[in-house]
Specification:
CATH architecture of the largest domain: Alpha-Beta Complex
Helix content: 40-55%
Strand order of the largest sheet: 1-4-5-7-11
Order of helices and strands: HEEEHEHEEHEEEEHHHHEHEE
Structural class: alpha/beta
Distance between the termini: 81 Å
CATH class of the largest domain: Alpha Beta
CATH superfamily of the largest domain: 2-enoyl-CoA Hydratase, Chain A, domain 1
Number of strands: 13
Shape: extended
Number of helices: 9
Largest sheet: 5 strands, parallel
């Protein structure tokens, strides 16, 4: 007869032998669940975004275009992924503008760290040439190339705490202005040929960006003011992530409204930032009324903190 101890030992060995099978099964279950969440969860969010944009268009009788780039914590197989303005964005925005009647207003919702110069300038040129009113909404930030797009607006609407940024070009991770400054600190014989070439490209990039920004601004302000502001924003006097607040933008001569429609905030909620499974910010929402639009229930909720790569050259 088998003793109780022997039976327990046999059951334990059987359990240990089955652990690899259980682990593999759990792995595939988790993988399949994650895949289904990506497919069906993403489709649900896309449907909600489309419906909200459609309702906003009906309210304002406009073409609504949203360019929202999330970054920082999003990962793909453990590798950080960031988004910025690229050629695919410019193709999509230009297509949307082409499909818009010339006199119909455009509402451009913008949340981006910037991106490729070519793509940004293509979008900016199309917006500034559109006959209808162009309103740019910045609910959180529009840095670098995003600021250039904001400058095309007939009306610029920012959250009271939103920021813009300088538009000085970057050559890879290095500001063009800093590369040019090397030649002010060293004689040409003291630097490499590669640095001399980079300095030449950097100087051209600064001149090109300044000219383009001046052309954009001259559509909305006198030419002398446009030239001064273009130089201020593109010469590299600040670091590239320097925040230009609503107050600072107004002091520079930009006309900025802070009457942000509530629908814009609702749209941003539909672009959740990928996180680590739990929110880093907790709060109890209070009822909200006024120009921000809508009322919000006072139930206990939590919300993750979210925000939203530079190309060569970029801004």
């Amino acid at each position: 007869m088998e003793t109780t101890k022997e039976t327990a030992e046999r059951a334990s060995r059987s359990w240990l032998a089955s652990l690899p099978v259980i682990a593999r099964t759990l792995f595939w279950v988790v993988l399949i669940i994650g895949f289904l969440e990506q497919v069906y969860g993403g489709a649900g969010l896309a449907s909600k975004r489309t419906e909200l944009l459609h309702q906003f268009e009906l309210q304002r009788h406009s073409r609504v275009i949203a360019m929202i780039h999330r970054q920082d914590t999003m990962q793909l197989f453990g590798v950080p992924v960031s988004k910025s303005i690229g050629i695919e964005d410019s193709e999509a925005v230009l297509r949307a503008i082409r499909l818009t009647p010339p006199d119909q207003p455009i509402d451009f919702i913008l949340h981006t760290p910037g991106g490729l110069v070519l793509a940004t300038e293509q979008i900016a040129h199309a917006l500034i040439e559109h006959r209808g009113k162009v309103t740019v909404f910045v609910p959180h930030y529009a840095m670098s190339g995003g600021t250039l797009l904001a400058l095309t607006a007939s009306e610029l609407v920012m959250d009271p705490n939103a920021v813009l940024g300088p538009v000085d070009p970057q050559l890879g991770p290095v500001p063009a202005a800093s590369i040019v400054k090397v030649l002010d600190l060293k004689r040409p014989a003291q630097v490499s040929d590669e640095m001399l070439v980079m300095a030449d490209v950097a100087q051209k990039a600064r001149a090109q960006v300044t000219t383009f920004v001046e052309d954009i601004l001259s559509k909305h302000m006198p030419k002398d003011r446009a030239a001064t502001l273009a130089t201020t924003l593109s010469e590299g006097r600040w670091t590239h992530d320097y925040p230009i607040t609503v107050e600072a933008a107004r002091q520079m001569g930009l006309s900025v409204s802070t009457e942000m429609p509530g629908a814009i905030y609702e749209l941003m909620d539909l672009y959740p930032q990928a996180g680590e499974g739990r929110p880093s910010v907790m709060y109890v929402p209070l009822p909200r009324t006024g120009s921000g639009g809508g009322q919000q229930s006072g139930g206990r909720q939590s919300a993750p903190a979210g925000s939203g790569g530079e190309a060569v050259p970029s801004r």
